[in-house]
Amino acid sequence: MDKALSGIKVLDFTHLLQGPFATQMLGDLGADVIKIERKGSGDSYRAWTFLKYWVGGTESPCYLAFNRNKRSLALDLKTPEAKKIIYQLAEQCDIVVENFRPGVMAKLGFGYEDLKKINPRIIYCSSTGYGQDGPYVDRPGQDLMIQSLSGLTTLTGTKDAPPTPLGTGIADQLGAYNIVYGLLSSLYYREKTGIGQKLEINLFQCLLTHQLQEFAVTLNSGKLFERPQSGIAHPGQSAPFGIYKTADGYMCISVNPIPVLAEVLGDEGLNEYNDPQTLYDKRDEVFFRIQASVVKQTTAYWVEKMLERDMWVSEVYNHLQVENDPQAVHLQAFTSYEHPTAGTVRTVNVPVKFSETPGEIHRHPPLIGEHNEEILRELGYSAETIEEMKQTGVI
Q1: Of the candidates 258, 260, 293, the residue with the CA atom closest to the CA atom of residue 273
Q2: pLDDT tens profile 271-325
Q3: Catalytic residue (one of 172, 267, 275, 310)
Q4: Are 341 and 310 found together in one domain?
Q5: Do 269 and 354 share a domain, yes or no?
Q6: Of the candidates 315, 341, 368, which is a domain's last residue?
Q7: What is the C-alpha separation between 235 and 245, in angstroms, rounded?
Q8: Which has the closest alpha carbon to 167: 186, 194, 144?
Q9: Pair (162, 198) in one structural domain
Q10: What pLDDT is stored for residue 92 in this prediction?
């Protein structure tokens, strides 16, 4: 079947996490994504891993995670021949995405104003840590720093713990979704008007935007959230909202009526706290009282018992357990593909279901320069010229 973005060509100068995740989403939807990499070393994320683990013994799981459905063209961007190739691609492409520090692309001759002269319809997205100018323009913009500056780390953890970052690159990943939302809306605008444009995304504002309700409280009240000593899962929430230890693991109990919870736990004394202000003021006391009951039985016991009463509860899984969750299996939330050096690679599937234009993994994450010849042939280069480029170090 045709894909939602079939016919859209993306010139991808991104590296590390945020930019590659965004262009991967476009590739999942059918766009032809041409990933421009440094000749030799390629994307910096190829050398990054966790747990000292390499898929198939050679491939970075971090790189594989964000680079499927792309073709790789490895160039020495400082050569005149490479510049000519980029300009040829820009003439054909609908979208350009880059996440270098401000000014880098312009110095290379690949800034928005440069490529707009070649293709006035081009949609050009630049993503940075803090924006294109301002007092932080020269600062490195990395996920942990953005979490820290945005206030997010002060919302997580217990009262006596230091500010705590989330256990995933949340700023980068939310930034990627903001890139995609900006690009798709720009494509629609161009479809109506024929006019391209430049987009500027920065991680700092993206993460501020994804704390809208927290800022709605603090900016208007002048008050800060206070983290509880217990496991209440959000500093603005009342008990029983949190993660609880059971006899064999953990479970979460979300927002629930206290009388129902008291009945299920067999602790009628909980009803003494059944007042919104009391549940906030004494949330630690309530949490630890609930914890004392929950730890006596298994997770499965409590989840079944509470779901019978239509309570908001669930198991707490680790990353190995969630793959076998019945709902994950039903949704086909995980899948695999074959890679020329890593072998069979397990991964998370495309999350959005389309009735007419389903997304899919149709290309493995490319090896460095895997598609050099294929892409150059499409631009009209002969086999002899391509061989000469190899010999002279252009590709």
Answers
A1: 258
A2: 999 999 999 999 999 999 999 999 999 999 999 999 999 999 999 999 999 999 9
A3: 172
A4: no
A5: no
A6: 315
A7: 19
A8: 144
A9: yes
A10: 97
Note whether 61 and 116 are same-domain residues: yes
Find, among 47, 80, 88, 89, the residue nearest to 64 by Cα: 47
**Whether 126 and 177 share a structural domain:** yes
Could you tell me if 292 and 187 lie in one domain? no
pTM of full prediction above 0.70? yes
Whole-number pLDDT of residue 243: 96
52-87: per-residue pLDDT in tens?
Answer: 999 999 999 999 999 999 999 999 999 999 999 999
Q: Is residue 115 part of a domain?
A: yes
Only one residue has tokens 């940075």, namely 128
Hey, what's the torsion of the CAs at 192, 196, 198, 203, to 10 degrees? 50
Given 315, 338, 357, which residue is the final one in a domain? Answer: 315
Q: Which residues pair with 162 in a beta bridge?
A: none
Q: Give me the residue label for tokens 């320069």.
A: 369
**Residues 111 and 92: beta-carbon distance below 8 Å:** no
Total number of domains in the chain? 2
> Which alpha helices (DSSP H) does the chain contain, by range?
18-28, 61-65, 80-92, 104-108, 112-118, 143-149, 170-193, 203-209, 212-221, 258-265, 276-281, 283-294, 299-307, 326-330, 372-378, 383-392
The encoded tokens of residue 187 equal 């494509």
Burial class (CB in 10 A: 0-12, 13-18, 19+), 169: buried
Helix axes 18-28, 170-193, angle to 10 degrees: 50
Intervals of the chain under pLDDT 50: none
* Together in a domain, 132 and 275: no
Cross-strand partners of 95: 10, 123
Report how far residue 87's alpha carbon sits from residue 115's, in angstroms, rounded to the nearest whole number: 7
Q: Is 172 a catalytic residue?
A: yes
* Token pair for 156: 């997580």
Cis-peptide, bond into residue 257, ω within 30° of zero: no
Distance CA(243)–CA(253), nearest Å, equals 6
pLDDT of residue 232: 92
**Residue whose C-alpha is closest to residue 334's, from 65, 86, 51:** 65
Same domain, 46 and 73: yes
Q: Which domain holds residue 287?
A: 250-315
pLDDT for 2: 85
Distances (CA, A) of 155 to 1, 106, 218: 45, 38, 12
**Residue 177 lies inside a defined structural domain of this protein:** yes
